[in-house]
DNA sequence: GGACCTTCGTCGCAACTT
DNA sequence: AGTAAAGTTGCGACGAAG
């Protein structure tokens, strides 16, 4: 049996931990560059603020309703997430951390929903008391059904106390008929539109389609989904694996038509990818660079990406930066105003089993240098040691007008308690 | 030797997720 | 002035090899 534990509007809940006056208030957290809304408190949802709402379009609504606004503070959220996952780990080793705010747990051997609901309740309590984040739990025989159960738990907090089990045929059918097709895990915008056109409006309708039809008109993914929805578990827990791609991509604060600016960004992105590679002890064999103009604007559009094969597997910031620049030079065109760029590394291999290349290899001093740089940056707590071509003042330039403090990860920003309150 | 078929790896892209 | 970032997977096209 699977449990899906999901933190309620996670980023907002993280902000609320350190600022209790935010409870019962409409709160939103914005994406990088303060671009759009990526987390909303229940009260904010009630105001009709959709997920992904562009900040500038909703600014007046926020003002009118006194919505509390935060720039995203990923260091804080990652730290809180780790604390939540540590608690989950105490309950079972069979756990899949699915995203920053949700995990699948598998309870083997017993299908006693009554007991597992009690455990789920305990987990919820411990996370709420220990970390300060509210969660919801969905219980079901398959992962896809656990997703739906979780959604039901979230939707009816008063009646269900944040826990719902799909533990009988009646409840399974009822749940499938309840959930709209576009809200089913794995059904995105495109598929939903096609299915709606076929008058498939909920998960139950979907399960009435024949296997052959689904396989022919859609794909193996949808066939697997049908089985999951019928209660046959085909999706298993996945282990924590090293990433197969690593990306660092950002929008710029303004449109940019200066090659040197874009180049500096690309070097920084490449160096950040290298850092992530070193963290998981991997090398990359391929590096891809992309640039694009602002697709929201009606100016002349240009977007390109290029993939370069590295002569040897590497995780050196210097090497990756060098090839990133090479790639950028191939695709950069004068006369366009660029809004976004990124570096993605792939073809990832284990750093310990580096293949010797007969013709070219990296300067062996890179390894030591990177180790030193990582060590220093770790000590400082943020990336301060950079390559010569990077902009040292760059951290200033992302728009983050509503940033909260790093309460848990930076010693200088610990929360202060006023002892004179009483 | 050439035509044909199959298999396999790679690449670009689309679609999906949070 | 302004609309996120990061990741996985599947699939079709294509070319090399057998």
Domain count: 3
Helix proportion: 40-55%
Strands side by side in the biggest sheet: 5-6-1-7-8
Structural class: alpha+beta
CATH superfamily grouping of the largest domain: Reverse transcriptase/Diguanylate cyclase domain
Residue-averaged pLDDT: 90
- Tell me the CATH architecture of the largest domain: 2-Layer Sandwich
Strand content: 15-25%
**N to C succession of SSEs:** EHEEHHEHEEHEHHEHHHHHEHEEHEEH
Number of helices: 15
The CATH topology of the largest domain is what? Answer: Alpha-Beta Plaits
Number of strands: 13
**Largest sheet features:** 5 strands, mixed
- For the CA atoms, what is the radius of gyration? 24 Å
Q: Give the termini distance in whole angstroms.
A: 48 Å
- The shape, in one word, is globular
Oligomeric status: single chain
- Taking pLDDT < 50 over at least 5 consecutive residues as the criterion, the unreliable ranges are none
CATH class of the largest domain: Alpha Beta
InterPro entries: DNA/RNA_pol_sf (IPR043502), DNA_pol_Y-fam_little_finger (IPR017961), DNA_polymerase-Y (IPR050116), DUF4113 (IPR025188), Rev_trsase/Diguanyl_cyclase (IPR043128), UmuC (IPR001126)
Family: Belongs to the DNA polymerase type-Y family.
GO molecular function: damaged DNA binding; DNA-directed DNA polymerase activity
Protein name: Y-family DNA polymerase
Keywords for this entry:
five-stranded antiparallel β-sheet; 40% helix; Dna Ligase, domain 1; 422 residues; single chain; Alpha-Beta Plaits; alpha+beta; DNA-binding; five-stranded mixed β-sheet; MutS, DNA mismatch repair protein, domain I
